[in-house]
Amino acid sequence: MTSGSSVLAGPAAGKPPDSPFDERAGGGETAGDENEEQGKKSSGDATKTDESATSEPEEGGEEPSTGEEEEAEGGLHALACLEGETADGKRKGVQRRDFLKKHRFEIAAVGGYYASDALSSTYSYGGAVAYYPSEDFGLEVLVTRTPIKFRLEEPFSAFDQERHFQPSAAYQGIASLLWSPIHAKFKFTEATIIHGDVFAMAGAGRTFHESVLGLTWEAGLGLKLYFSRFVTFRLEVRDFLIPQEILGRGRSTNNLAVLGGFSLWLL
């Protein structure tokens, strides 16, 4: 009996079973780990779903053409810069030319200061006629009258009581090529903007006077302001290179003229 009871009470071969309390605790930890893994999987699946939804375009939609959009925006920007006004009524950008010279005639009256290299400084006045075959180039003929005196005549006359240089007038006829490379705008008030041109000139002609020996060469710069369709203000500086003989001595002289005036335009 004793041996039988001991056999029945003895443990089975191998490792004895763990405590049921340990099994319960182990089972709880396993369940928690499984819950955490399931949560990670679900969050990962959701992230993948969001990425796939973001990366894939909507069905039936077409992406707009980038080139066409840029061209349209560029055209609108150009129009906005060329014409129009801002919200407060001020003009903006670069406007188109309000005054055109192409195929038009210009008749001008000019006058101003004339500084001679060898003779006395004096004044000059006259007129000009120009024609513009294009907007930037023109052909002009200038005719002026300039009173001339010799600034050293008085010392010579006081020495020998003779007059060696008689005061007279010189006439000039100069043909010039006009070039207007710069078109400008001048703002006088908030509502007044006047268009203008900065131009250069070069040409040749004759100066009719007894002291002149040959051709007269000319170069200069000028500015024109277009007050209206038919009236223009002009200001210019011209240098005339003239071969002259004064009291038996010949030399090439620079004669500077600062001329201003107004022009009338014909259709």
CATH topology of the domain at 104-266: Porin
Uncertain stretches of 5 or more adjacent residues: 1-11, 23-32, 46-61, 76-83
Distance between the termini: 146 Å
* Structural class determined from secondary elements: alpha+beta
Strands of the widest sheet, in order across it, are 1-2-3-4-5-6-7-8
Report the major sheet: 8 strands, antiparallel, barrel
Q: What kind of oligomer do you see? A: single chain
- Give the DSSP E fraction (strand runs of 2 or more residues): 35-45%
Describe the fold and architecture.
This protein has 267 residues and is an alpha+beta fold. The chain has a domain of 163 residues: Porin, CATH 2.40.160.20. Helix content is 26%, strand content 44%. The protein has an 8-stranded antiparallel barrel. The termini are far apart. The N terminus is likely disordered.
Which key features would you list for this structure?
Porin, single chain, elongated, 26% helix, 267 residues, alpha+beta
